[in-house]
Amino acid sequence: MHLLETYLRELNEIHHSGAGVKETSYYPALANLLNELGKTLKPKVKCIIHLRSKGAGIPDGGLFTAEQLKGLNEDENPLAGQLPARAVLEVKPPKDDINKTIESAQVAKYLSKYGLVLVTNCRAFQLVKAGPGGKLVKLEAYHLAEKEKEFWALAAQAHNATQQHGERLADYLQRVMLANAPLTTAEATPSTF
To answer: Residues 6 or more apart from 117 whose CB is under 8 A from it?
Structure first.
C-alpha cells in the first residue's frame, strides 16, 4: 500500500471514530508518513513529535537527520540541545485555514528560532522560512484538498487519491526534508526552494 493511502486511511479512521481530538490524534499518521519517506533519503530524516521548548514554544514536531540521532535507539530523543536540522512542524486540524496558521505569532516564533517551518492542516502543506530581517517567506506548497469537506471525501477514497496525489506529495515532502541539506556530491542538485 502506498504511503499516502496509509496516511489517508489512518486519518479517516480517526475522524470517523469520533474518539480522537481534533488535532493531536492526527500526529501519529503524519509522523508515520514523514518517517517512511525520511527513510528513503540520504541522509535519512526522522520526524519526532512534541519537541522540548528551546525558547520559542513547543513545536508539534521536528525533522532530524540520522547524524543527529547517531548512536541513539529509535525511541530516544535527539541529544540535548540539538535543533532539528531540517525544520519544525506546526500542525493544525483539517478544518483550520493554513494561511491563518502561517501568519500566526506562533509560527513567527518558530521561524526566529528554527528558520524553517512546515505548516500543515493535514490536507495542505506549506514550507516557510525566515527571510531577510526575519520576514516570513513562503516556499513551495502542496494541497491535497482546498476545503475540509473535500479532504474527508478524498480520504474516504484513499486508493483513488493515491493515484492522483501519491507520487507528487511524496516528492514534495522529500524536498521539504532536504531543504536545508548541504550539497555532498557533484550529482546533488540545489533544492527548488
So the answer is: 59, 87, 88, 89, 90, 107, 110, 111, 127, 128, 129
pLDDT for 82-94, tens place per residue? 889 999 999 999 9
- Judging by DSSP bridges, how do beta strands 124-130 and 116-120 pair with one another? antiparallel
Please, where are the H alpha helices in 83-146?
98-102, 105-114
Rg (C-alpha) for the chain, rounded Å, is: 16
Distance CA 150, CA 139 (A): 24
Which element (helix H / strand E) includes 64?
A: strand 61-65
User: Residue 147 to residues 121, 140, 163: CA-CA distances in angstroms?
Assistant: 10, 19, 20
Strand order from edge to edge, sheet including 61-65? 45-49, 61-65, 87-91, 116-120, 124-130, 136-143
Residues 6+ positions from 42 with CB-CB distance below 8 Å: none
Q: Which residues is 45 bridged to in the sheet? A: 65
> Contact at 8 Å (CB) between 65 and 86?
yes
6-31 pLDDT, tens per residue?
999 999 999 999 999 988 999 999 99
Please report which helix (H) or strand (E) contains residue 129, including its range. strand 124-130
